[in-house]
């Protein structure tokens, strides 16, 4: 039986991963920020030595993309320093590491899905710090680290574009949404399942892309959400990104390719399915979570 240690277990993905492992009856220790600060090298060593996991999944991250522009050093401490501490702990105790990463490692200007081995060229502080985290994991654990890149995440246990749209559909007559950024809306529960399958498949170490298949824009996603709510999708209006300047530029094209999954050993791990199907499956849980949060004030 594989023993798991999940860091950042209080976050959106970490919560769903711990829940998925628990429901499968797999032994898992979830450590949130209060119980393990990944920037504390000694605490990381103690946590791994004390629990002796077979695999560590690092869901801890500085995820405030805009704030990272003015605080790159602090973001780097978490996103790269944390990964390096965990990789060192895993190297010392012989366990595998799954390091979560992001589409922001790429420039976001491609005309076809990014392959796992395309050359990264981050354009934001967040992207640079996450790329440094990937390298910390892969360099220290060349034979036993997985980098799992994901993007456009939504889930029941954290803020996301999907939950924001559910809220705005209740509050506003119309919503303006950017129509010139392309990506793959991805459910945290699907990423959790993908991580579990990857580890159990004994796949070759390296980089994997855990995003939904297909692609849309934020505008396309918002219209789908309004449709699912029974609201008029025409209440969502398209705007260009230039109408919504932000400290960190958003990638115009974040679509990730899924070729590496084909190389996983028999019986193989298929990539996550189409984004619209996943959204439909997740939707009741997302609406319930958003309405509960609104009721709690
Ligand atoms: N959300 C997305 O759309 C998205 C897209 C691409 C990639 N990713 C990647 O996916 C992974 C999971 O993201 P998520 O959406 O679940 O993020 P999240 O909800 O922000 O969770 C990250 C967790 O890390 C914790 N954390 C921050 N600093 C820490 C530290 N020094 N030590 C330990 N824990 C710390 C946070 O705690 P506090 O809340 O207390 O700070 C939070 O609970 C991350 O690697 C992220 O970069 C996310």
Provide keyphrases for this structure:
297 residues; alpha/beta; 6-stranded parallel beta sheet; two-stranded parallel sheet; binds NADP nicotinamide-adenine-dinucleotide phosphate
Number of E strands = 12
SSE sequence, one letter per element: EHEHEHHEHEEHEEEHEEHEH
* Quaternary: single chain
Helical run tally: 9
Q: Mean of the pLDDT scores?
A: 96
Describe this structure in words.
The strands form 4 sheets. Strands 2-1-3-4-5-10 form a 6-stranded parallel β-sheet, sandwiched between helices. It has a two-stranded parallel sheet with strand order 6-9. It has a two-stranded parallel ribbon with strand order 7-12. It is globular, with a radius of gyration of 19 Å. The chain has helices at residues 12-23, 41-51, 65-70, 72-93, 125-140, 161-171, 188-200, 218-229, 275-296, and strands spanning 4-7, 28-31, 55-58, 96-102, 145-150, 153-154, 175-178, 182-183, 186-187, 206-209, 216-217, 236-239. The protein is α/β, with parallel strands linked by helices. The mean pLDDT is 96. NADP nicotinamide-adenine-dinucleotide phosphate is lined by residues 7-8, 10-14, 33, 36-39, 59-63, 78, 82, 100, 102, 130, 150-153, 158.
């Amino acid at each position: 039986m594989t023993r798991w240690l999940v860091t950042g277990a209080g976050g959106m993905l970490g919560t769903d991963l711990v829940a998925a492992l628990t429901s499968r009856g797999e032994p898992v220790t979830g450590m949130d920020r209060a119980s393990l600060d990944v920037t504390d090298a000694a605490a990381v060593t103690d946590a791994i030595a004390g629990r002796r996991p077979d695999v560590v999944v690092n869901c801890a991250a500085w995820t405030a993309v805009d704030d990272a522009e003015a605080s790159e050093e602090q973001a780097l401490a978490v996103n790269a320093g944390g990964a390096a501490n965990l990789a060192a702990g895993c190297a010392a105790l012989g366990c595998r590491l799954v390091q979560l990463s992001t589409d922001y490692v790429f420039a976001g200007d491609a005309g076809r899905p990014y392959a796992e081995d395309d050359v990264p060229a981050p354009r934001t502080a967040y992207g640079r710090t996450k790329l440094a985290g990937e390298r910390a994991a892969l360099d220290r654990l060349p034979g036993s680290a997985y980098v799992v890149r994901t993007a456009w995440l939504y889930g029941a246990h954290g803020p996301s574009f999907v939950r924001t749209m559910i809220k705005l559909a209740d509050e506003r007559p119309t919503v303006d949404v950017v129509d010139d950024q392309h990506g793959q809306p991805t459910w945290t529960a699907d990423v959790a399942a993908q991580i579990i399958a990857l580890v159990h498949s004994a796949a070759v170490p390296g980089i994997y892309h855990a995003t939904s298949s297909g692609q849309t824009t934020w505008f396309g996603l918002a219209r789908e959400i309004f449709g699912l709510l029974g609201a008029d999708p025409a209440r969502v209006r398209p705007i260009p990104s230039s109408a919504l300047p932000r400290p960190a530029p958003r990638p115009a094209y974040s679509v990730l390719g899924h070729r590496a999954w084909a190389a996983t050993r028999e019986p193989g791990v298929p990539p996550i399915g189409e984004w619209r199907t996943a959204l439909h499956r997740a939707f009741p849980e997302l609406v319930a979570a958003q309405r509960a949060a609104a009721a709690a004030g």
